[in-house]
C-alpha cells in the first residue's frame, strides 16, 4: 500500500523560530504536496513539487518555503513561525490518486 | 472565494438511513471530483471519485450523483453504519493532476 510518512507527528514551536516539517514517501511518485488544514476550511495547498530539486507555489505559500532534495523527500519550512501558522499539516504524494500522510499538528506559541 | 463548497458543516442520520452530502463548485473546467473520508487523527483517504463525463458513480454503499450543468454533486451513503461517522471532503481538480481544491468538509455522525 502507498505510504507517506510525516515527522514529527506533533510539534510546539515558539513564535519567530524556525520549523521544519518532513515528509517521506515510498510510492515512487513524482508529485508531492503540502496542505494545511484548519477547522472549517478544509485543506489548502501550500507548496507542491513535480520533480526533485524543484518546487512550486500553491494557493497559500506566504510564510512557507519548501524543499524537495530527492524524489522521496519533501520538507516544509517555516523560517519565522507565527501564531497564525498553528494548524495541522498534511503531506501527500500522487500518481493519479492522491495519498495523504497522517498529518503533523503544529502549535505555535 | 470558495471554489468548492459543501452545503453542511455537519449532518446526523440514523443507522440504516441514507446520508446525503452535497457539494458545489465554481470552475466549470474542473473534470475530476474525488470524495475523501477522514477519521480523527488520520489523513484524508480517497473514498470514491467521478469524472465529469459521467453523471453517476457507484461503489458498494457509496454513490456519487453529478450534475455538470448545475455544477453540483452529491455523495449518497446507503445503509449508514456507525463506522461511517467521519468527516467527508468534496474536492475538485483536473484529471491526472493532484492539485486538489477542497470543500470545507461535512462531519457525518451516524446514530445507532
What's the topology here?
The complex is a heterodimer of chains A (109) and B (112).
Chain A: E1 4-7, E2 10-13, E3 19-25, E4 31-38, E5 42-51, E6 54-57, E7 65-67, E8 73-78, E9 87-94, E10 98-100, E11 104-108
Chain B: E1 4-6, E2 10-14, E3 19-25, E4 32-38, E5 45-51, E6 56-59, E7 62-67, E8 72-77, E9 86-92, E10 101-102, E11 106-111
Parallel strand pairs in B: 2-11
Antiparallel strand pairs in B: 1-3, 3-8, 4-5, 4-9, 6-7, 7-8, 9-10, 9-11
Question: Notable features of this structure?
Answer:
heterodimer, A: 109 residues, mainly beta, seven-stranded mixed beta sheet, four-stranded antiparallel beta sheet, 11 strands, 0% helix, globular, B: 112 residues, six-stranded mixed beta sheet, five-stranded antiparallel beta sheet, 54% strand
Helix and strand sequence of chain A: EEEEEEEEEEE
DSSP strand tally of chain B: 11
Return Rg of chain B in Å: 13 Å
Largest sheet of chain B: 6 strands, mixed
Largest sheet descriptor of chain A: 7 strands, mixed
Structural class of chain A: mainly beta
Strand percentage of chain A, roughly?
over 45%
Based on CA inertia axes, which overall geometry of chain B fits?
globular
SS summary, helix count of chain A = 0
Helical residue percent band of chain A: under 10%
Radius of gyration of chain A: 13 Å
How many DSSP helices of chain B?
0
Question: Oligomeric form of this entry?
Answer: heterodimer
For the residues shown, what is the average pLDDT of chain A? 95
Which percent band covers the strand fraction of chain B? over 45%
Q: What level of helicity do the residues of chain B show?
A: under 10%
Distance between the termini of chain A: 37 Å
Amino acid at each position: 500500500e502507498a505510504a507517506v510518512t510525516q515527522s514529527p507527528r506533533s510539534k510546539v514551536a515558539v513564535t519567530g523560530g524556525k520549523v521544519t516539517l518532513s515528509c517521506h514517501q515510498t510510492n515512487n511518485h513524482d508529485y508531492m504536496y503540502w496542505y494545511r488544514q484548519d477547522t472549517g476550511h478544509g485543506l489548502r495547498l501550500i507548496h507542491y513539487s513535480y520533480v526533485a530539486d524543484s518546487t512550486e507555489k500553491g494557493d497559500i505559500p506566504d510564510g512557507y518555503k519548501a524543499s524537495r532534495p530527492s524524489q522521496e523527500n519533501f520538507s516544509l519550512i517555516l523560517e519565522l513561525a507565527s501564531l497564525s501558522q498553528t494548524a495541522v499539516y498534511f503531506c501527500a504524494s500522487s500518481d493519479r490518486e492522491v495519498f495523504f500522510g497522517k498529518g503533523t499538528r503544529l502549535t505555535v506559541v | 472565494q470558495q471554489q468548492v463548497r459543501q452545503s453542511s458543516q455537519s449532518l446526523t442520520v440514523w443507522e440504516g438511513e441514507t446520508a446525503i452530502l452535497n457539494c458545489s463548485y465554481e470552475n466549470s473546467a474542473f473534470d475530476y471530483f474525488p470524495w475523501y473520508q477522514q477519521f480523527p487523527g488520520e489523513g484524508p483517504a480517497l473514498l470514491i471519485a467521478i469524472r465529469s463525463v459521467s453523471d453517476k458513480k457507484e461503489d458498494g454503499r457509496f454513490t456519487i450523483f453529478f450534475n455538470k450543468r448545475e455544477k453540483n454533486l452529491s455523495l449518497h451513503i446507503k445503509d449508514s453504519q456507525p463506522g461511517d461517522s467521519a468527516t467527508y471532503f468534496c474536492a475538485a481538480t483536473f484529471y491526472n493532476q493532484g492539485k486538489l481544491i477542497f470543500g470545507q468538509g461535512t462531519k457525518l455522525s451516524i446514530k445507532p
